[in-house]
Write a structure and sequence with these properties.
alpha/beta, Rossmann fold, 2 domains, 11 helices, 8 strands, about 50% helix, about 15% strand
Length: about 280
Amino acid sequence: MPTATIRGVELVYETHGTAGPWVAISPGGRRGLVSVKPLALLIADAGYRVLIHDRRNTGASGIAFEGDSESVEQAEDQLALMRHIGITGPAYVSGCSSGARLSLTLAMRHPAAIKALLLWRVTGGEYAAKKLAFNYYEQFIAVARKGGMEAVCETDHFGAMIKANPKNRETLLGLGADHFVAAMERWLAGYHKGSAYPISGVPPEAMRAMTCPAIVVPGNDFIHPRAPGQAAHRLLPNSRYAEIFSHDVEVDVDFAAWDAKDPTLAAIFIDFLRASEAGRV
């Protein structure tokens, strides 16, 4: 896979499709590009060019913890990567869960870069706020304090990143536990700053100011309940809403069911993209 040094971090990325409007898709959680590749290929087959990448601190990309907000850093990375591969005008930007938060953050900070937003499984609610604070930050703070950076390297997430890119072990060990913990605490504070909003991480007034077209597909589990998706649709002034599941499930993340619905999600997004290109949104 090609790589690019973006804002000081090596990012692994792929592009699919040879012609048509650009669509940049970001996965959720700290999952890598492989989790959205099936969706990307389906959209590319319909006549679009698609960019997917391992965000910093995911997959085989590099590790870095600058700034006060993980979503802001990843949003700025994505914009810089888009420019690096030659996307000079506004593009369709799509994301799931934390990728939706990235997409909305990018739209909030750089509205001219966005042609439209395609969002699914938007995150929000008290349960998600507590669970994700632990998953993303608190568990690693505890590990680093107890066992240092060697122990951090042995965690499931960072261990997988080292397996995908052995240079990440050197990066982590070079940070030192004190620097790592301070960075995690800073990002944790940044996360909590916006975790009580209806859509995690994005102020309602900022969403009301987003005039670009959008489509929102809500989630159906504890981390991605239906309510944040409905709120996003209400807050975004030029949005459409489409549901894939009519029932909710009592699990944190319904990975398997959603992965099986990639063709349905692709069809919804392709219809929206075609309508946008035809000036009907």
